[in-house]
Design goal:
Blueprint: H1 2-12, H2 16-61, H3 71-89, H4 92-95, E1 104-108, E2 116-125, E3 141-149
Helix pairs in contact: 2-3
């Protein structure tokens, strides 16, 4: 008869594994999906920042005075090279979504006074590339930017 007693204990606990699984699975899936989703957001952010840095480097690499007679024309060519390079570095699926207006622009630098910098800014509307998951907060726009100081002669 002791077998009946053990058997009775087993039948009362036979559904606990399924119940625990049903409770833990949604929490586990939410954590995994959150990790993957925020990993994608961080990867996109890093991609934008690296593309902006490459665009800024292109402004530095552009030859001083190349096919231009004055500093203003050279700066305009450097800004154009920065914009073109920043967009060319990005994958086509991302660069097609980014607005091409004012990607690179000439700004004044803080130190030393009167020096000229080029700022490259890439803005990606996150809703255009990321799926919307209810209850998961994401930024409306992902931004990558870089600023370089041009040589004083240009």
């Amino acid at each position: 008869m002791p077998l009946r007693g053990n058997h009775a204990v087993r039948t009362r606990s036979s559904g606990t594994a399924a119940l625990e699984f049903a409770i833990v699975l949604p929490v586990f899936l939410a954590v995994v999906i959150g990790i993957v989703y925020f990993g994608i957001v961080l990867a996109l952010q890093q991609t934008l920042t690296l593309a902006a840095e490459e665009g800024a480097r292109a402004a530095l690499r552009y030859p001083s005075g190349a096919s231009a007679n004055n500093a203003a024309a050279t700066q305009a060519l450097r800004v154009s090279a920065a914009s073109t390079t920043a967009l060319a570095v990005l994958p086509a699926s991302i660069s097609s979504v980014i607005s091409t207006a004012n990607i690179a622009q000439v700004v004044s630098c803080a130190n030393p006074s009167g020096s000229v910098c080029v700022r490259v800014t890439l803005n990606l509307p996150s809703s255009a590339i990321l799926p919307v998951i209810p209850g998961v907060p994401i930024p409306t726009t992902l931004t990558g930017s870089a600023t370089v100081q041009l040589a004083p002669d240009t």
